[in-house]
Specification:
This protein is of the alpha+beta class. The protein is built from 9 helices and 20 strands. Among the domains are: about 90 residues, Beta Barrel (Thrombin, subunit H), CATH 2.40.10; about 100 residues, Thrombin, subunit H (Beta Barrel), CATH 2.40.10.10; about 100 residues, PDZ domain (Pdz3 Domain, Roll), CATH 2.30.42.10. A 6-stranded antiparallel β-barrel has the order 1-2-3-6-5-4. Strands 7-8-9-12-11-10 form a 6-stranded antiparallel beta barrel. β10 and β11 form a beta hairpin. The N terminus is likely disordered.
Length: about 425
């Protein structure tokens, strides 16, 4: 026991001794004094690196984004444009004319009120009106390059997720190297020809929506194509665009004739005549009292010998809808080269000519001429399908494809012997 006590006592002494002996190597950790200069340098370096990375990323995105958008646009399959057709068999009915009641308004006041109503009706359609300018270069006799331009009013008739579709005159944009479209608020963007038709002088120009700022888009309207088959004489119409040759003009008047026709190659259209005084250089559209487009102003048509050249005239829109659909889809126009006139049943019975499409002329070097079709022939069928009017003939022709051979059922005069049926094979040409 005594020994244990001694041992313990030694252990305690030894422990104390160890504590004393190791006291000198104990460490006290102190924080290094803050180096403000070094800290600021590190913060600056990190910030600089962040800025460099951010700028690089922004530049990369700015370069890649447009390409990405284009790739996405290209990857999307544009839906085929389908314009509803009007029924030509609908018989127009006259609207009862109200009996004029005595009014305290003067004639001037009545005219002013009527004009204000026309302005109100045309307010929304006018948002669809744009100016289209086609620019191209040509050289003068001294080989100096000159910039020339053509101008016409255009109207937005369609839109999809990517583009606005503008119907305008082909002469303004034909062979143009640059096309500029000006919206109602003055915004100018570049456009491109989708398809054009030299027969009617119509063209569809497209504008990418991505090139039109959001504010301008908010002020844009798409015109409604109405039904011109329902028009009658005396119907009130409104002319907008530049019917007088001056931009953003509004006129109103009445339709004086709906029976005139315009013959163009491989088809014909109704021509609406109004009592609105216009210009030979006028362009734009005719509206009905619902604000719908019922005619495309076409001042090139008319009788040179009378004053009708100065009256606003328009191609009836219902007959144009198939062509507008073709142009909007960028599809080919099928061509044979025939100018014809309808021979109705009544006309046939009265002048002893077979019912069908009377061939007035055949264009030189056309598929129709090469096939042997002649002036005076009467076309009745295309590939066995009835084509006894220019509208039927045109519709059947546009269903064909370029290079396709079609069989025309034709009645040809044999003089005193009357008419004899014959088959003519012709090859359709795409334009």
């Amino acid at each position: 026991m005594g020994n244990e006590k001694n041992i313990n006592s030694r252990d305690k002494k030894s422990s104390k001794g160890e504590e004393k002996n190791y006291d000198f190597i104990r460490e006290t950790i102190k924080n290094r004094p803050l180096d403000k200069k070094r800290l600021l340098y590190r913060i600056g370096a990190l910030a600089g690196a962040g800025i460099i990375i951010g700028v690089t990323a922004a530049l990369a995105f700015s370069v890649a984004a447009p390409r990405l958008v284009r790739k996405l646009d290209e990857g999307k399959q544009q839906a085929k444009i389908d314009i509803p057709q009007d029924d030509p068999s609908v018989t127009p009915t006259a609207t009862p004319v109200p009996v004029a009641m005595p009014s305290e308004e003067s004639a001037m006041e009545q005219a002013e009120r009527a004009y204000q109503e026309a302005l109100q009706i045309s307010e929304e359609p006018r948002k669809a009106i744009v100016s289209v300018v086609g620019q191209k270069e040509k050289e003068d006799i001294l080989d100096n390059t000159l910039l020339t331009s053509g101008k016409a009013m255009g109207i937005i008739i369609l839109e999809d997720y990517r583009d606005y579709y503008i119907l305008t005159q082909q002469t303004a944009v034909k062979k143009a190297e640059n096309i500029q479209v000006t919206f109602q608020d003055g915004t100018i963007v570049n456009g491109a020809i989708k398809k054009s038709d030299s027969r009617t002088d119509l063209a569809v120009v497209t504008v990418h929506k991505r090139d039109v700022d959001k504010k301008t888009q908010e002020g844009v309207s798409v015109a409604v194509l109405g039904n011109s088959y329902s028009l009658i004489q005396g119907k009130t119409v409104i002319a907008i665009g530049s019917p007088s040759g001056y931009d953003d003009s509004v006129y109103f008047g009445t339709i004086t004739s709906v029976s005139n026709k315009v013959a163009v190659t491989d088809t014909e259209y109704n021509l609406l005549i109004t009592d609105i005084l216009g210009s030979q250089q006028g362009s734009g559209v005719l509206l009905d009292t619902d604000g719908e487009v019922i005619g495309l102003i076409a001042q090139d048509y008319g009788d040179e010998k009378n004053e009708s050249k100065t009256m606003v005239k328009a191609l009836a829109v219902s007959q144009l809808k198939p062509l507008i659909e073709t142009l909007s889809n960028g599809e080919a126009i099928q061509y044979l080269g025939v100018r014809g006139k309808d021979i109705s049943e009544n006309v046939s019975n009265s002048i002893d000519i077979p019912q069908g499409v009377y061939v007035k002329s055949v264009e030189d070097n056309s598929p129709a001429m090469e096939a042997g079709l002649q002036s005076g022939d009467v076309i009745q069928k295309i590939d066995g399908k009835e084509s006894e009017t220019m509208q039927q003939y045109s519709s059947q022709l546009q269903k064909c494809e370029g290079g396709q051979k079609v069989s025309l059922t034709v009645m040809r005069s044999k003089g005193a012997e009357g008419y004899a049926e014959m088959k003519i094979e012709a090859e359709v040409e795409s334009r």
